[in-house]
Amino acid sequence: MSTSRRLIGWLEERLNLTEIFSFFTTFGLSYGEIDLNKPLAAASREAFTRELPTYTRGPYILGVLTFLVFIFQGITGLLLAFYYQPSPTAAYESTLLIIRDANFGWYIHQMHYWGSNTLIALLALRLVRFFIHGVYKKPRELFWVFGVTLFFLATQQALTGSLLPWDQRSYWAATRGLEVIATLPVIGSILSFLVGGMELLSGTLLRFYVLHIIFIPLAMVFFFYLHFATVRKVGLSPLPGEKQAEAKPLYPDHLFQLVILSLLLFGAILTLGTLLPAAFSGKADPFTSPPGTRPPWYLLPAYALVELLPQTAAGVLLLLVALGLLALPFIERAPYRELKKRPIFTGVAVVFCLLILVLTFIGYRRGY
């Protein structure tokens, strides 16, 4: 018997390795049920050879890719954290050290920046895909709820991270973002309590850092787990009008396709970081707002509303939209999944998307 098998056997006498394997494969690797009563070798062999409809086909891949980008963000963020110092007196200089002096620091910083934007874009794209294909229909209502929650968390993760470089661009972008969130009833007050007020002071920066590297990532891991556990329970949702997809084993079919698609995605992030690097301006000056100040792109529609309406009205409207998104599966309960059979909600969704585009343009122009 080989040394590795003896080691696994020794561990299995003391740990439920199959349960550990089941936990980690829950995160999009295998959505088939794992028999926890079997030894690790038998359970993993069964999981890798069981034939299931592939999740690396068409729109299904978005969920797995989203989680991989989240892991990518964790790795690049950890590398940056080795050098970063979360204080107003050292944040800018430590970021400058990362960009200018650390080996591959500039590149890792750019990949982290574009990875954050990619994560938000993928989560938004998943919500669009969920609506178009009616994925939120019974019994998959929680797919939508967890997806919307992850999108909100990802935007807050990006917003808290946007302040950390402590340069002019990041400081004032975070300031505008906080001004938007401060208009939300109840939520604005909770955020103000968490970050120590709406003024970006030394304590605020430290609390942003703690939220960015600990609390929000843990919350996202929790909701990713709930989402993929739901997939394992109820299975993938077939596309409307589609026959049952061809079943294939996880290895090598699914994993090979997943590796190829992941390489393409991360290649795109590397390319964006090289060709369109994020600007890094001078040290933050709380008393001088530079021209073109606006919040990050994902808050531009909300920023436009706050600029166009009284703050109280804008905050209430934004909160109602957020709650409406979360409650969509429980509002639109018709069993039909095809768009043509949901004309009212399809029309509302089209108008909503057009408004988002118009408000994004207005919010962008308001920065000038």
Tell me about this structure:
This protein has 368 residues and is mainly α. Helices cover 67% and strands 2% of the residues. The chain is built from 14 helices and two strands. It has helices spanning 3-12, 17-25, 40-49, 61-81, 91-100, 105-132, 141-162, 168-182, 187-195, 202-234, 250-275, 300-308, 311-331, 343-366; strands spanning 51-53, 247-249. A two-stranded antiparallel sheet has the order 1-2. Helix 5 packs across helix 6 and helix 7 (141-162) runs antiparallel to helix 13 (311-331). It is globular.
Shape: globular
Strand order of the largest sheet: 1-2
Helix content: 55-70%
Structural class call reads mainly alpha
Largest sheet: 2 strands, antiparallel
> Which sequence of SSEs, written as H and E, runs from N to C?
HHHEHHHHHHHEHHHH
> Rounded to an integer, what's the Rg over CA atoms?
23 Å
Number of helical regions: 14
- State mean pLDDT (0 to 100 scale): 87
How many strand segments?
A: 2
Task: Report low-confidence residues grouped into runs of 5 or more.
Answer: none
Percent strand equals under 5%
N- and C-termini, Cα separation: 71 Å
Annotate the secondary structure layout:
Elements: H1 3-12, H2 17-25, H3 40-49, E1 51-53, H4 61-81, H5 91-100, H6 105-132, H7 141-162, H8 168-182, H9 187-195, H10 202-234, E2 247-249, H11 250-275, H12 300-308, H13 311-331, H14 343-366
Antiparallel strand pairs: 1-2
Helix pairs in contact: 4-6, 4-11, 5-6, 6-7, 6-11, 7-10, 7-13, 12-13, 12-14
